[in-house]
Each structure stands twice: as C-alpha cells, then as structure tokens.
Specification:
By secondary structure, the protein is α/β, with parallel strands linked by helices. Helices cover about 35% and strands about 15% of the residues. A six-stranded parallel sheet has the order 2-1-3-4-5-6, with helices on both faces. Helix 1 links the parallel strand 1 and strand 2. Helix 2 packs across helix 3. The longest helix has 15 residues. The chain is globular and about 40 Å long. About 5% of the residues have low confidence.
Amino acid sequence: MTAQPTYLVLPGYEGSGPEHWQSRWESADPAFRRVEQADWDHPELSAWVERLDRAVAAEPGPVVLVAHSLGCILVAHWAAAAAAAVSATATGAGVAKVAGALLVAPADIERAGVTALDGFCPVPLQPLPFPAVVVASTDDPWCAPDRSRHFADAWGARLVVPGAYGHLNTASGLGDWPDGRKVLADLTG
C-alpha cells in the first residue's frame, strides 16, 4: 500500500490570502500544509529554496507540490538545484520524495518588470524529475499562453488550459476550485 502524500502548498509573490483556492484547500484538508516563507513581499531565492527543501525533508512519506505563480518558479529552481547537486544532499535526496507537482499560473518573471522578483531570474528550463501539470489561463496578465506552453514543455509537464480565468487566483472567482482538485487527482491518481 502506498502512503498517502502530504500536499505542500507553495504560494507565490505576496502569498495567498484566505479566499485563495490554496488557502481553501489547506482549510479543508489537513494533508495540505503551507510552506511558510519569511517574507512574501520581498522573496529571496536561496531562502525560499531552503525552506522548501526543509519542508520536503521533514515529511516522512511522499509529497505533492501545489504551487501558484512564483511558487511554480520556486519548484523549478529547487529541482534544478537538486539536479546540480554533486552528492546526495538533502536537496538531492528530497526530489525523490516528490510524487508530483501541480504548477498553477506560473509567473513569467523575466517579463514581469517587478524588481522584487529579479532574484528568481532566469527561470530554470530543465525537465522536472517528477510528474507535473501546468495549469494556465488564456488571459493571465502574468504569463502569456505561449510562455506557459514553453514552461510546460521545458519542464516535461502536461499543460491544462481551462480557459480565461486571469491569474487563477482569488480575483478569478474560483472559490474552492473543484476543477483544480480534479486536475490534482488526475496527477496523483
């Protein structure tokens, strides 16, 4: 019998408020745990990667990453750092625990023009060492459809395009986002 995964929730720049689908999923299911960052408004790549690495290492069983926006870029950086690890460090060993990643509305930080995000540039474009799905809207102000497809292709992820939902956040009016839960179930099923 396969152990039930822990779902590590990775919000993006400025975090995810109480009405965001990530926060709602956390409230509804104790298997969902947010990886808290020291500063959501002034993200620092090395600190964010370290916190993700520690969160994965702390879980006794498999994990599924549930990322939004800059959180998707964090996953790509974390996986790239693991691939670059010369020996089996905590970072290198951690990716083996990842059963999958739901990457929702990856932010095209290279074209965003937000100075606070410059430290996450460039976006790593290596294949992810675990199954992944990118969910991207057709009218996301943070990422054009062709860039979402580019990220999905580079990461070896399946691309799901639900339609025009903006940045797939609270402003998108998704509520509990049951369609997102279905995508997640397909990924982990």
